Fold this sequence. Notes:
Low-confidence stretches: 6-10, 16-21
Radius of gyration: 18 Å
Shape: globular
Amino acid sequence: MKSIPYYALLLCMALSSTLGFSQEVGIQLYSLREQFKSDVEGTLEMISEWGITSLEGGDTYGLPLEEFQALLEQNDLSVVSVGTSFEELRDDPAAAIKRAKDFDAEYIMCPWIPHKNKFQMGDAKIAVEVFNRAGKQIEDAGLTLVYHPHGYEFAKHGSGTLFDYMAEQATNFDFEMDVYWVKHGGADPMTLLNTYPEKFKLMHLKDMKAGVKGNHSGHEDVETNVALGTGTIDIAALVRRAGELGIPYLFIEDESSRVVQQVPKSLEYIKQLRRM
C-alpha cells in the first residue's frame, strides 16, 4: 500500500481537528473529469498527495473494476458515495445498489431530475415517488439515498418552494446540499440547513465568483467556481454548521478549468478555519 506523504498526513490531521473527528473533507471526482481522461492513475495519486482520502464518484474511467479498486487501495482512497441517474433509480435501483456495494460505499447520490424547460410541481411529485420507492430498497440494503438539488427546486410553490414540498414528502431519501447551487437557485444555504437540519446528510463545498446572479436553470458557466473562501458564499459558517449537525462528509466540487490549482487552496482555506 502506498504511504501518504508526511505533509499530507499533517493536512489530514489539521482538517480532522478543524471539523471534528468524524467529519472528513473529500472530493467529488467530477471535478477532475478532464484529468481522468488522460491519466487515471496519476489523477488518483494527485488526490492522495493532496491529503484527501474520501471520494464521491462511482465511475472507473474505462478501467476494469478490480484494477480501479486496486488503484484506490494503493492510494489510500475510499469511495464513500456513488452517483446514479434518475432513470436508474426509476428502472433499476438494484444496479445502483450493486455499484455502491462494489465500492463499499455508504451513500447513493442522484444529481438531476429530468424536466422540460421549467421544473414544475408535476416533476417534483414524480421525483418524490421515484426517490421514496428506490430509497426504501436502498435503505433495506443498508445504504442511504440522497438527492442533490441543482437550484431549480427553489422555484416558488405556495408559501414556500418546490424543494420544501420535496423535503416534506421525503420519507425514504435525504439530500446532499451543494452550497453553490442552493444560492444559485435563490435560496440561502444556512437558512436551509437550519430549516431542515435532519435532511442533509452530505455537502458539496463550492464557492461562487462575485457577480453571478443565478436562476432556476440548474446551469452556469463552470468558470464561476472559485477557490473556497474567495467567492460570495460564507463557506466558513457553513462548514461550522455542518460540523454541528454531524454531516460526515464535505466534498469539494470544483468544475472549473483551474481545479488542479484551486483545490489545494481550498484545502488550505479549510485548514485555516480552526484559527478563526
